[in-house]
Amino acid sequence: MSEQAAWPLDDRGAAYGDGLFETILVRGGRPLLWDEHLARLARGCHVLGIPMPAEHDLAAPLAEAGPGLEVLKLTLTRGSGGRGYRPPAAPEPRLRWQLADFAPAESRWQTGVRVRHCRLRLASQPLLAGIKHLNRLENVLARAEWNDDAIAEGLLRDDAGRLVEATAMNLFWQRAGRLETPHLARCGVAGTLREALISRLDIHEVEAGDEALTNAEAVWLGNSVQGVWPVVCLDDAAGVERRRWSLGVTHRTFQAEAHALLGYPCP
Amino acid sequence: MSEQAAWPLDDRGAAYGDGLFETILVRGGRPLLWDEHLARLARGCHVLGIPMPAEHDLAAPLAEAGPGLEVLKLTLTRGSGGRGYRPPAAPEPRLRWQLADFAPAESRWQTGVRVRHCRLRLASQPLLAGIKHLNRLENVLARAEWNDDAIAEGLLRDDAGRLVEATAMNLFWQRAGRLETPHLARCGVAGTLREALISRLDIHEVEAGDEALTNAEAVWLGNSVQGVWPVVCLDDAAGVERRRWSLGVTHRTFQAEAHALLGYPCP
């Protein structure tokens, strides 16, 4: 694992979560979905009012990458300065990176995963929806709701009970032959794999509650690092099983589209 | 200014805002409202599942304090470890502190302040309401809404238009002779000065919209570092003046109660 110097004590990222991050799959030094990662980071910079770094600065850590599969984590903060919450007039953003060897959870591609509903409801903050900012306490608290390693992920709903995402992955399903994923206008992170799939497939962004999953022919979780996991079992927040799915060709077709973008095999 | 070593790159505070902070007024090495700060930190630790440090560790930086007025900032994170958002089973919290000379904005005690409504609406997240966690992007974005130094603070409402707080201070008013402050069950930070005043005065925690201020005889902002600022002018989010107040004995009485707790004079 290579990484850089630490965060100064007065960095606004450490003080207020005043920054953004991207977690990028790297194969043989080549970043996957790089354009989507740059686009999301730029969107976050625009929302927060942080100057977007030059692409060559963001790509510089790739020179340290080895021949295998790695994950590059880029963290960009507003830097130091300002007075309390007040941001400095001319922020000097601070960029740090970590590069680590990576192996995806291949067995989850093959056999699918069991997931559960989380009790925590995501708060609605349209200003911050979609971007990958550093205020992630909701994700941390949701992920702390279970310890059973047989549960791969937890599904998150908003305060009105609408499905949003999983703690670290986006959510997709097929209902009546139609591919759908939650609309992320109020909360949630718009994953780069989700963006890439929406631009390539006929995926509808919808507002939907639990009934969407109850009625779904197939459900998947996915992100740009792990690829796509078919969901084979859904528990409620009390751990009671609510629905099972058998893996079929529908599951594999969607997975193949996603994995082609990441250089992963079709299970 | 004395301070400690930096944050490691893998610290969860820097990565996710997975931690808490306290900002404490210190006079001649003696912390003000210390019990209230400890109580809020303990409440935050309980909510986030972070072990509460021993009081002597939290108080250790006070040994570095000089004879004058200073502000001690304590930041406590869940430390390193865990896997992604998943917290480590046995977190080893990391405590850092900064101690800086301080002078309160005395002229604001005397002449009062002009404030404005912010456009940003605070998201409702009951799980995190009241505690002083490190996910403060809403405060940063709200504080970035204005640059005019004549505006001392911005008032924040929730998504239903209920008054909550100011970006870095709590809000109080008197209406029909009754002291009131917003209920903080859904969002906002329960300031230590607010806690101390509620336990000493007959202050009612209420749900109220803008009409509470329109009808108020007096309005104040306060926190444990700056003391209490009477509000003499309120602008809306477009900068249009909505209401003015003349300073009177009501303002000074409340201010005197608060300033007695902080060792500040009664203006």
UniProtKB/TrEMBL annotation, chains A, B:
Its cofactor is pyridoxal 5'-phosphate. Keywords: Folate biosynthesis, Lyase, Pyridoxal phosphate. GO terms for molecular function: 4-amino-4-deoxychorismate lyase activity; pyridoxal phosphate binding. One of its GO terms (cellular component) is cytosol. InterPro entries: Aminodeoxychorismate_lyase_IV, Aminotrans_IV, Aminotransferase-like, BCAT-like_C, BCAT-like_N, Class-IV_PLP-Dep_Aminotrnsfr. Pfam families: Aminotran_4. The keyword Lyase applies. Pathway: Cofactor biosynthesis; tetrahydrofolate biosynthesis; 4-aminobenzoate from chorismate: step 2/2. One of its GO terms (biological process) is 4-aminobenzoate biosynthetic process. The keyword NAD does not apply. Its EC number is 4.1.3.38. Belongs to the class-IV pyridoxal-phosphate-dependent aminotransferase family. Homodimer. This is Aminodeoxychorismate lyase. It comes from Halomonas alimentaria.
